[in-house]
Amino acid sequence: MPSFRGAKVLTGLNSLHRTVSSLSVLEVSNADFSSKIVRSVQEEWYAEEIVISSLYSIKDSVDKQCEAIQYLINLGEVGLILYYVGIVIPKVPEEVLQLAESQNFIIICMPENDSSLRYNEVIYEVMEAIVLDNQTINDNFVNESLEKVSYLPEHSRSVEIMLKLLADRLKANIVLTNTKLEIVNQVMWPRNSTLDVMKIIQEHAPQMANGSAGAISSDIACFVDHKVLRQKNGEALNLFLIKENSKLPGKTIDKISEVVQVAINLWGDKHNEVSEYALVKAIINDESEKMRRLAHLLHIDVASIQMMWLVYIQDLSEEKRIREELSEHLSKSYKTAVIQTIDHCIIVLLGNCSYKYNEIEVAEEYIDTTSFLPSISEMVYAPRMRNTTDVRRMYQLVNQVGKKVHLIYQERKMFTAAEIRSMKRAIDLSVQGEEVIEEWMAVIAPILDDPESVRTLTIFLLDAKGNFDVCAKLLFVHKNTVKYRIKKISELLGYDITMNSEFYDVYLACMIYRLIHN
Q: Where would I find the Purine catabolism PurC-like domain in this sequence (predicted)?
């Protein structure tokens, strides 16, 4: 494109085959502020979007620039078109380039030191190409659509996320219903649309018998197309494509229904099932319409859920017995308890706790007394879940941390949500390049040449949670020996690592140390 002449691809060469179907301007580059805006609206996955920015609001902070790139990567953005290098930021920091390259994130640098560049030139040409491309659905559309979903983390792949990608491509509303015309999944376009799709579907119902489609007489001109899809168990689902002001081509409708059918085959097992398992799956997969319908049918007040446990098990043959033990343990403390297994994770959603119980003590008591501890690889205790969005984010965060939890915490199986968030931060910092790692290692530099002090410090802060007795047992030394070593280490580092207000930087440095040395 003429508007990109002189631009350079700095990172992400292996991702240049990816499709771009939307473009946004990143007006506020501060990741903290941007994330609050995005998450306050709704969770999305921007798997086909590229962003334009000059990073002006964070031009003086390399750390903030790295945070912004990581934030865009976490959202699923394809890449960043960076303007005014040499004017706003002198050059692209090496830490930013290393972080982007490590995760195949594309950074396209527009011609440097050129103040005559205008965002609108790239915006016009990119959007023109996208519109022209969206007018045609090629023969490889099914494979391309599935490939796009494959870029998502495994736990995020679902029928609803596929519907979101298709709705954005078609600029149309997509609705899945059961045979009773009860909505199973619903994705609106635009997302804030107030169109009454249920009314439109009911108006269209008489035409469904002969398979016809057409405009519906309402305040807004809508064209409705309908296809019947099948689940693995043979049960039917109705797919409705509702587009305002224009009709979708017949070939497009066929290809879309084929994609949705494949998505149902892959991720929609028992898609119309009414069960606690289906409810938990809907919460985790961000299938909001389905979640509300199932919660209503099952008489479960999802608004009362304020606590989540994630119990990861190594041996699935023990899964049923572990769930029974959990149910028995929790019945005396909680009125609401939903316990279901997805893959190797038992998801426990809890609400209405009896005030005579301390919730963290309930969790600690379980991990201390369970007869299945050898089968449990880890357990995460996540309080203060304000809504199902918090539940989904925490589940995704734990899965992002993954097995690296055992590199950081080598002697523990139970972790809090706060510890998981700290782990994620340490993991992100550990891939931001040598300069960032050196900066964090400088925090514990005075003891790095002393293996005994390093081992004592990491076990004390990470494995023993600052408890002298536990640390002594893990080190096979006397408690007073640990106290002497920690006092000496504190003096060398210049931090009192027995005080919560002082040791957080040391705590993070210990995490990063274990990540890069294990």
A: 1-130
